[in-house]
Structure formats: C-alpha cells, structure tokens
C-alpha cells in the first residue's frame, strides 16, 4: 500500500480512539452552530483553526478560493453545499475564511492581469472568482509587489463572498455572516494561525466593527480599507 495512505490510516486510528465516545449525540442528526467556508489549501486547518474537537459543531465547506457561489440555471447563486446546513440543520452563522497567500486568488489575479490559462476544472473555479475580483484588481494601489497585491485581494474576495450571502434571497436575513482571514504569513501582526475578522454582515470599516463588537476588538483588523 502507498506509504502516505498507511500513515493516514494510522492517524485515523489515533483519531478513532480519541473520538469514539464523542458521537453519541450526533449519530442520527446534526445541528452545527456554524457553517465555515474555507479554502481547501493544505495549510488551512479547517477544524483545528477554531480549536474544534467536537463532532457536529461545525459544518465545514472547502474549495479553492473559499467560494460561496455556484452557477445555476438562472445564473450565479449561493452554493448548495453552503446553503444545506442553513436550510436543513438550523445553522444561523456563516463564516467565510480566506487566508494569506491564497493560490486561487493569486491565479485569478494573474489571469485578470495577463490572461493566464489553467486546466478546465481549475479554470472553472477561477472563473467564478474573477467577476468578484475584477473591480478589486482595478482598485489596487500603485507600487505593490505581487504578494502585497494578493493579500489585499484576499480581503476583497472575502468581502465579495460575504456580500453574496448577505444579498442572496436564498439565505435568511437572520443568518449572521462573518468574513475572516487566516494568517500564517505574518501579515496582520498577530500569531501565525490567528483568524482576523474583516467583515460582519457587509460592514468592513474597522472602526465601526470595533465599536459594534468590542468583545473581539483585538481580533478585528484589515490591511486594506478601500
């Protein structure tokens, strides 16, 4: 057997031993407190970033670029994998999690800048991001290097995904929508792996967010207020 699979199964054995008694209350149903929409980048630890070790607590959705949208018959709409816990399990909080150095944002930025092409499947995903990032690319300040530009667009992409949820008729108005960035590149000045809140229900002004949410004031911050 492939050695990587052997190692994965050994890790799963440790997991099963630790978690065996934690499924009693969720074997037949789930009622997660939040749905998190994260990038599927291997450096983004979807449950561990929240310290979560409880099955049933988080409904985790992963894709490249932490997208909340898909193409439907009538055009772009909220993705069904994001909508499912909101519609069927009573989940009242949605958290969009971007991350520093995002490859999907980088690829979309490059495609918008110089018409870079990708294999069809990747191109499909980037084409869902591109319409949301195009105005952000145009608004970038002059003189940024590529990494600085990408990390500003990471925030911009989170803002756009939050807006897609807030403005969608498919998402009840009572659902709280929070936009965040997971930082492992020392961009935000905190510890590596910290999550920084950049948007709440469409509000992205740092001063306003800190006034509205003083209990998490030290976790609110942006690198780009456009």
UniProtKB/TrEMBL annotation:
Entry's cofactor comment: Binds 1 zinc ion per subunit.
Transmembrane regions: none
Entry binding sites for Zn(2+): 39, 99, 102
InterPro entries, A to Z: Carbonic_anhydrase, Carbonic_anhydrase_sf
Protein EC: 4.2.1.1
Top EC class for this record: lyase
Pfam families in the record: Pro_CA (PF00484)
Keyword field: Lyase, Metal-binding, Zinc
SUPFAM superfamilies reported for this sequence: beta-carbonic anhydrase, cab (SSF53056)
Cofactor(s) recorded in Swiss-Prot or TrEMBL: Zn(2+)
GO molecular function: carbonate dehydratase activity; zinc ion binding
Domain of life: Archaea
Catalytic activity: hydrogencarbonate + H(+) = CO2 + H2O
Entry's family note: Belongs to the beta-class carbonic anhydrase family.
Name of the protein: carbonic anhydrase
């Amino acid at each position: 057997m492939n050695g990587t699979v052997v190692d994965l199964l050994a890790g799963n054995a440790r997991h099963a031993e630790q978690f065996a008694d934690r499924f009693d209350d969720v074997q037949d149903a789930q009622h997660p407190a939040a749905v998190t929409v994260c990038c599927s980048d291997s450096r983004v630890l979807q449950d561990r970033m929240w310290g979560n070790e409880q099955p049933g607590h988080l409904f985790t959705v992963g894709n490249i670029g932490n997208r909340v949208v898909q193409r439907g018959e009538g055009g772009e709409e909220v993705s069904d994998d994001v909508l499912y816990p909101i519609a069927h399990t009573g989940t009242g909080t949605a958290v969009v999690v971007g991350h520093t150095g995002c490859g999907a944002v980088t690829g979309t930025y490059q495609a918008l800048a110089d018409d870079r092409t990708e294999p069809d499947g990747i191109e499909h995903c980037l084409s869902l991001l591109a319409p949301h990032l195009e105005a952000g690319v145009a608004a970038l300040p002059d003189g940024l290097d590529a990494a600085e530009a990408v990390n500003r667009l990471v925030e911009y992409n989170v803002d756009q995904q939050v807006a897609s949820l807030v403005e969608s008729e498919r998402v009840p108005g009572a659902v709280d929508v929070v936009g965040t960035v997971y930082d492992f590149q020392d961009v935000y000045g905190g510890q590596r792996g910290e999550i920084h809140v950049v948007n709440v229900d469409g509000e992205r002004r740092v001063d306003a967010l800190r006034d509205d949410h003083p209990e998490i004031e030290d976790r609110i911050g942006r690198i780009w207020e456009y």
